[in-house]
Amino acid sequence: MSDIARFSVSVESDLLELFDTYCQQEQFATRSEAVRQLIRDTLMRRAWESGTHEVAGSLTLIYDHHRSQLRDQLVELQHDNTDLIVATMHAHLSHDVCMEVIALRGPAGKLQQIASRLKGLKGIYKGELVMAIAHPEPSKSVAKKPPKRLPE
C-alpha cells in the first residue's frame, strides 16, 4: 500500500451536507474513505472506457432455462474465452429461470465484448457487467513519477 497523502478540498456547505448524507447512507467509516472510493470509481470508469486496462469483473445473467439452445450457446461462448473467464456459478431461481454469474479478468474492452455477446443471446432476461481495476495499487513505474500539483 502506498503512503497516505493529505489534501484539503473546499466545497459549498450545502454540497458538503449532501456528501455527508451520502457517506452516512453508504455507511463509509469516514469522508476520506468515501473520497477514496469515488476516486477509484472514477479511475475505473476511465480505464473501462479506454478498453485497454486489465480489469476483473462479474457478469450476471438471468435467463430462460427452457429456451432452446441457449445453454449450449452460453457454454460455447465461455469455452471460446477461457483466457478471460476465471469461473462460473449457476443457480436455479425457479423452475423456468436460472442465473449464471461469470467471473472475468482481462482487458476491459474484451470483457465488454464478451458481456455484449452473452447479453444479446435470445432468452437472456437481464445481463449486467460489473468491473473493477484488477491491479488497484499503482505500478512502480507510475509511482516513481512525481505527482502533478493541481490548482485549488
CATH level-1 class of the largest domain: Alpha Beta
**How far apart are the first and last residues' alpha carbons, in Å?**
26 Å
Strand order of the largest sheet: 2-3-1-4
Q: pLDDT average, as an integer?
A: 85
CATH superfamily of the largest domain: ACT-like. Chain A, domain 2
Shape: elongated
Main pleated sheet:
4 strands, antiparallel
**Approximate strand percentage:** 25-35%
How would you portray this structure in words?
- There is one protein chain.
- The protein is an alpha+beta fold and 152 residues long.
- The chain has helices at residues 13-25, 31-50, 70-79, 108-119, 140-144, and strands at 54-64, 85-92, 97-107, 124-133.
- Strands 2-3-1-4 form a four-stranded antiparallel sheet.
Fill in the keyword field for this structure.
alpha+beta; 152 residues; Alpha-Beta Plaits; elongated; 4 strands; four-stranded antiparallel β-sheet
Q: What does this entry show, briefly?
A:
This protein is α+β, with helices and mostly antiparallel strands and 152 residues long.
List strands and helices in order, with pairings.
Elements: H1 13-25, H2 31-50, E1 54-64, H3 70-79, E2 85-92, E3 97-107, H4 108-119, E4 124-133, H5 140-144
